[in-house]
Amino acid sequence: MAEGVSTFSWPAGHPVFAGHFPGRPIVPGVMLLEWVLGECARRRGVATSALRVREAKFFRPLQPEQSAELLLEPGAARFVFRIVHGEAAIASGIVEWDGDA
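Given the sequence above, the corresponding structure tokens read:
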């Protein structure tokens, strides 16, 4: 069963939005994945370098100032993640680790 881990939003003044994309900014996928890895690492009590993104799918963009919720479903040596904004799916995927990590 998935459980809410954290909610986050990126401020419109964040420097990344100056180049991603001027006039129609969106949160870069890499920033979403960094958030996912950070939360998974925190839950596991390991460094983010001990984890890897096995799969990630992006469905719709997230805009500056929009809040997103990260939902994690734990499994054997992996988390299945979903990022949502309200009822809208933003992204989903799998973060995994070696059995001893």
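Residues 3-96 form a domain with the Thiol Ester Dehydrase; Chain A fold (CATH 3.10.129.10). Try to locate this feature in the token string yourself.
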